[in-house]
Amino acid sequence: MGSCCSDQNIQNQFDNHNARVTNLYQETDAQTEEIKKQTPANVTAAQVEYIISDEKREEQENKQEINNVSNDQRIDIYQYVQFVENYKDYLDEQGLINNVKIDQFEKHIQAQLKNILKIPIQNEDGSYKLASGAIYEGKLDENYGKVGKGKLKDKDYEFEGEFQNDLPSGNGKEIRKQVVYEGSFQKGLYDGFGKLSFPNGRVYEGNFKNHQFHGKGELINDDGVRYKGDWENGCLLIGVISYHDGSYYTGSLKGNFFKDGKGTLYNKESMPQYEGLWENDQPKICKVFNIFDNHHIFYDGEMENYAITGKGERFYPDGKYQGQLQRDRKEGKGNMLYSDGAKFEGFWENDLQTKGKYIYNLKNPQFFYDGQWKNGIQEGEGEYKYPSGGIYKGDIKANKRHGFGTYLYSNGNKYVGIWDNNNQQGDGQFYFASENNEHGDVYSGQFEQGKFNGFGNYFYKKSGKQYIGYWENDKWNGIGIFRNKDGKIIKCGEWKSDKFIKDVDEKDVVFPADWENKYKIISDIGEQLQNPQDQDQQ
After folding, report:
1. SS3 state of residue 209
2. Predicted confidence pLDDT, tens digits, the chain (538 residues)
3. Residues ≥6 apart with Cβ < 8 Å to 235
4. Among the four residues 41, 84, 360, 401, which has the most C-beta atoms within 10 Å?
5. Measuring CA to CA, which residue among 471, 468, 494 is closest to residue 482?
6. Which domains does the chain have, with CATH numbers?
7. Is-contact 437 530, C-beta < 8 A?
8. What's this model's pTM, rounded to 2 decimal places?
9. What gap in Å lies between CA 44 and CA 80, rounded to an integer?
């Protein structure tokens, strides 16, 4: 655009331009007048006059040109020359704004306006009033940016320290709505070592990065709880939480200072209470220490809401339990190893055994009870196996054989019948062992304190003979009948301690009713005497 530089061309362009812009400035709004008032003296009128909105420009260009223009609306020739030189890239050959580039021109003018409005106003005391209304004491660079040491004060905000590129950088002190930070800044952000104090008493002292706690530091909360350790982007990841009562936690954390991951909670004597894995601020799988017993471990396993719940290992003065627990009570499947060498394997309910195997001593695991329990004692149906080799299967009550049951002796003898307080008591059958695993003699009758006592039927296997009558202490005692293998009576009378005393007529012999069915001899040792309750139902 060299043609725009001669005097005649400039004059012609100036005249044409004044005529065209007369209409443009006639309806300049209050915003333009306000801009003029705030504009420093060294800014040209041309720069101001062309700062109008897109809508206003379109509205003005659609109106008719007005020929009569007052002098104060016209642009000085020298201002116009300066305008042409500064904005020639946006003008056509006639010196008018190129319609194609009008959007770019307006953006350029708006950017200049922003810069104009940023220019601080210097006060009499040497301080500057910024466009925001804040007061600044210090040096400004050529772009009116704050630089070096200075003070900045605004409503609810104060800063004193070092500036660089218009932002706090270096050491300084900031007060923002009673929140005080004193330390290192970088590009206007807390960065480096510093101390941040809140009006409620909360204080953080340590390292910052990008306005967040980052690195090593300590936060003292308004409730007095302390959080110290390694921070990352405002979160304490690994550190120590110290509580009012002197207890403290050390280990991994996540947002909101929740204990999460591996960590240990100590009491005020620095003795551990919970050690292990945490989740959402609660122990998940931990060792729990007894603070009343030299801090020995009394539990190691799963937890829920600080309660011993789940699968774990619980330690007691008399032994160790491994299995399921519910709020520190044995519940579900689990094993208890007792200090005396005994062991229980089975199921629990409300801290008591319900069904399982109790080994009396692991040194002799063949000696055990396997069956039902009630209120912590052996009761119900079960099986005993004794060190002697004897085996009992049947009813149990209060840890004893009681009710209907079968006892197999180690020598092959067997009792099937009623028990009372560990004794054969009532109706039953006793099978004597013989060679070839066949039963020998059989007694079917009444028992007392484990002896044949009362009425009974005794079958002699070898001879086939049979005694039917009364007994006392395993001996014939009272009225009885002795038969041969064919059923013929050998003797009928009264005995005392196995000795025959006198004859009695068979017609005068009185035996219990239905004795033949009740005390019949079962020939097959594999058969067992029926439970009297079952007999009653038949």
Report:
1. strand
2. 444 444 455 455 545 544 444 444 444 444 455 544 554 444 444 444 444 444 444 445 444 443 343 334 444 555 555 666 677 777 777 667 777 677 887 777 777 666 666 688 999 999 999 988 999 999 999 888 999 999 999 998 999 999 999 999 999 999 999 999 999 999 999 999 999 999 999 999 999 999 999 999 999 999 999 999 999 999 999 999 999 999 999 999 988 889 999 999 998 888 888 999 999 999 999 999 887 777 688 999 999 999 999 999 999 999 999 999 999 999 999 999 999 999 999 999 999 999 999 999 999 999 999 999 999 899 999 999 999 999 999 999 999 999 999 999 999 999 999 999 999 999 999 999 987 767 799 999 999 999 999 999 999 998 999 999 999 999 999 999 999 999 899 999 999 999 999 999 999 999 998 898 889 886 543 344 444 444 444 3
3. 213, 253, 254, 255
4. 401
5. 468
6. 2-119 (no CATH), 388-537 (2.20.110.10)
7. no
8. 0.64
9. 9
Q: State the DSSP H helix or E strand holding residue 108, giving kind and residue range, or none if neither.
A: helix 102-118
Contact 412, 437 (CB under 8 A): yes
Q: Where are the alpha helices (DSSP H) in 39-87?
A: 45-49, 54-61, 77-87
Token pair listed for 342: 């005994």
3-state secondary structure of 206: strand
d(CA 383, CA 359): 12
Taken in order 186, 189, 192, 198, is the CA torsion positive or negative?
positive
